[in-house]
Amino acid sequence: MTDIAIIGAGFIGGVHARLIDSLDGARVSAVIDTDVNRAALLAEPRGARVAASLDDLAEGHHLPDIVSICTVSAGHADLAVHALELGCDVLVEKPIDITLVAAARLTEAAKHSGRMVGVVSQRRFLDTSVALRQAIDAGRLGRLTGGTVESPFFRPQSYYDSGDWRGTRDRDGGGALMNQGIHALDLLLWFLGEAATVTAAASCVAHERIEVEDVVGAAIGFTSGAVGTVFASTAAFPESGVRLSVFGTSGSATIADGRLTMRFADGEEIVDDSAPEGWTSIDWAHRAQYADLLDARDAGRAPAIGLDDGHRALAAVLGIYESARTARTITLP
After folding, report:
1. Where do the structural domains in the chain lie, given as residue ranges?
2. Which of 35, 125, 174, 232 suits 271 as a labelling partner, its CA being 20 to 30 A distant?
């Protein structure tokens, strides 16, 4: 049985707990939160331990096999580094942190520890995403020339008012792109490869008392020569799901409303996302990422989505923010 401790007993921590509950061979062994009463609400129905910190848990010699970090974005790296130092494998919710310095610190710690670190980006595990990546790898779209992705969500003012960290630069790290659109951006990077430059604009047009953007758009130049665009918002009512298109010299593909449509000279191919009854496709994909993590641990391999992937997505987000702030094109590291 693989013991998993969740750090952060908020909404996302609850999502992770339900996913772990559904897996054979894994259990929530502890819930860690500075608010131990909140932690208890998540832990007690599962017979899990409650602790105010990872050190508190370690003092009782109850270290888990895996630590799942579900806290406010700023501080992800520090928590992950500490878990690695204690000998645990780690799963970090997106983003891996809010600065490249913190991300580099985590990468260095992972190299020295020899432990495994996965980064949450569950949309890669959707059936549509997997099928498109396979088509790209097989060369069916030809040379990729570009792509576009939209993440048009809606969050009422009450969403930002619900936590003093929401909409802040120093704790949240960003707005519509860092927290919602990063999943869609990660997909575009996964399909089109290394991003080289970004040119962006961002603003806050529909919310009050926040320091970050609720709408952002960017053009991305890739090292391959392909060109892409990304749009993210938390002020798009009524919100719709992520829509992504990839274009190539031999075909094109679009993912929208849980369906992948690939168009080639000789016709179309369609793939639908699927999930068992009682599951949404995105939750089923999130569960699949956990299953991959457990399999990677058993097989002694790297997880499908690791620190390089998380670093790449964070670098693109921060580059977009810098471009929007300075009104110039940014070359990515």
Report:
1. 2-122, 123-278+305-331
2. 232
Nearest one of 110, 60, 103 to 87, comparing CA atoms: 110
Mean pLDDT of 28-48: 97
The closest of 314, 316, 329, 324 to 216, measured between CA atoms, is: 324
Please give the Cα distance from 240 to 212 (Å, whole number): 21
Dump the DSSP string for 161-224. HT-TTTT-TTTT--SIIIIIIHHHHHHHHHHH--EEEEEEEEE--S-SS-SS-SEEEEEEEETT
Helices 281-299 and 11-21 pack at an angle, to 10 degrees, of 70
- pLDDT above 90 coverage of the chain, percent: 97
On whether the CB atoms of residues 287 and 20 are closer than 8 A, the answer is no
* Architecture of the domain made up of 123-278+305-331: 2-Layer Sandwich (3.30)
| Residue 157 CA neighbour count, 13 Å, CB half | 5
What six digits make up the tokens of 193?
């490869």
Phi/psi at 10 (nearest 5 deg)?
Answer: -80, -160
Report pLDDT for 192.
Answer: 98
Residue count of the chain: 333
Q: Which of 190, 193, 188, 186 is nearest to 121 (CA)?
A: 186
What pLDDT was estimated at residue 62?
85
* CA within 13 Å, CB half, 63: 14
- What architecture does CATH give domain 2-122? 3-Layer(aba) Sandwich (3.40)
Per-chain mean pLDDT for the chain: 97
Phi/psi of residue 94, nearest 5 degrees: -70, 150
